[in-house]
Amino acid sequence: MKITKAMSIKEVVEKYPATIPVFFKHGLCCVGCAAAQFESIEQGAAVHGIDVDALIADLNQAVAQE
Questions:
Q1: How many Å apart are CA 5 and CA 42, to the nearest integer?
Q2: Under DSSP, is residue 48 helix (H, G, I), strand (E, B) or coil?
Q3: What is the pLDDT of residue 29?
Q4: Within a 10 A sphere around the Cβ of 26, how many other Cβ atoms?
Q5: Exposure of 60 by Cβ count < 10 A (0-12 exposed, 13-18 middle, 19+ buried)?
Q6: Do 19 and 12 touch, CB atoms closer than 8 A?
Q7: Tell me, what's the pLDDT at 38?
Q8: What CA dihedral angle connects 26, 7, 1 and 56, to 10 degrees?
Q9: What are residue 27's phi and psi, to 5 degrees?
Q10: From residue 49, how far is each of 5, 36, 45, 63 by CA, in Å?
Q11: Which of 9, 21, 27, 61 has a CB 3.0–4.6 Å from the CB of 36, allowing a cystine?
């Protein structure tokens, strides 16, 4: 796995731009907000009631297709 729950949203989006639609698909639309700079994927998912394991799986799938 390239992407983990502990990574910041900003880090993932900058490193893997193809993940942006995945974040949106899961309802985590704050990829450009200030909190995304320091908030981990796990923290963001918890705040928005998102299944973090499903999100991580989809993010890694998107990266694998690059």
A1: 5
A2: helix
A3: 80
A4: 19
A5: middle
A6: yes
A7: 81
A8: -10
A9: 90, 15
A10: 14, 16, 6, 23
A11: 9
pTM of this structure = 0.89
Q: Using 50, 70 and 90 to split pLDDT, how confident is the model at 63?
A: very high
CA–CA dist 45, 32 (Å, integer): 15
Instruction: Choose among 30, 51, 46: nearest CA to 12.
Output: 30
Residue 20: both structure tokens together: 């942006």
40 backbone φψ class: left, alpha, beta (φ>0; ψ -120 to 50): beta
DSSP state of 33: S
- The token duo for 34 is 């200030």
| Structure confidence by residue, pLDDT tens digits, 15-56 | 999 999 999 999 888 777 777 778 899 999 998 999 999 999
